[in-house]
Every structure is written in C-alpha cells, then in structure tokens.
C-alpha cells in the first residue's frame, strides 16, 4: 500500500463528500459524523460517482438508483447494488488528507 495525497482537509465539507483522482483512481473522500473515509468513487451497480450522493448514517447513497454503501466496509446495504466497492485507509497529516492505495 502506498499513501497518496488526495486533498486538503479544508476542501471537505463538514458533512459530505468530494470526488478526486488519486494516482489515476477515482476516490470519494467523505467526512461523516466527524470521521474521514475513502472509497472507490464508482457505484458497483451503475458507473456513476458515489461522491455525488447523499451521506447519512455512515452510508453513501448512489443518486441514480438509490443503492447505499457502508462507508466503513464498502458493502451495499440494500439493492439494487450487490457488489461492494473498495475502501481505502485515510490519514491526515499537516492539513492534507492521504489515501492508501494498493501497490
């Protein structure tokens, strides 16, 4: 795993997500209930950005068909999605958010 800078912490909303590209990988960086999460920014059901969805109760809801994914595990919490999305470790250092991607 290699850490890559994803964004400045100040770029994140108090509660919500932004989509960034990290080392060629689309990543949704999410702040929810004071915690930071990172997950693959493409819904496993339809190829749309999860970062454009609503964040609530430690889930992100895909805006297209309503699939929800657990921010901690990437697993769908309801249909129509049945496949999880990848989650990535997050670290904050000096006001910057870093995401760990597989080598």
Descriptive notes:
- The protein is mainly β and 103 residues long.
- It has a single domain, classed as Rieske [2Fe-2S] iron-sulphur domain (Rieske Iron-sulfur Protein, 3-layer Sandwich).
- The protein is 0% helix and 48% strand.
- The protein has no helices and 10 strands.
First-residue to last-residue Cα separation:
5 Å
Which strand order spans the largest sheet, edge to edge or round the barrel? Answer: 2-3-4-8
Which class in CATH terms? Mainly Beta
Give the topology string: H per helix, E per strand: EEEEEEEEEE
Query: Looking at the structure, what is the overall shape?
Result: globular
Strand content: over 45%
CATH architecture: 3-layer Sandwich
What is the CATH topology descriptor?
Rieske Iron-sulfur Protein
Mean pLDDT reading: 95
Secondary structure topology:
Blueprint: E1 2-8, E2 16-22, E3 25-32, E4 35-40, E5 54-56, E6 59-61, E7 68-70, E8 87-88, E9 90-93, E10 96-101
Antiparallel strand pairs: 1-10, 2-3, 3-4, 4-8, 5-6, 6-7, 9-10
Short description:
Helix content is 0%, strand content 48%. The chain has no helices and 10 strands.
């Amino acid at each position: 795993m290699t850490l890559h800078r994803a964004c400045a912490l100040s770029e994140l909303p108090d509660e919500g997500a932004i989509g960034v590209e990290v080392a060629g990988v689309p990543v949704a960086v999410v702040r929810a209930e004071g915690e930071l999460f990172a997950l693959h920014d493409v819904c496993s059901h339809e190829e749309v950005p999860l970062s454009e969805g609503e964040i609530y109760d430690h889930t992100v809801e895909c805006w297209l068909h309503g699939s929800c994914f657990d921010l901690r595990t990437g697993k769908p919490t309801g249909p129509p999605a049945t496949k999880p999305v990848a989650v990535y470790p997050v670290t904050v250092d000096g006001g910057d958010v870093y995401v760990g991607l597989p080598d």
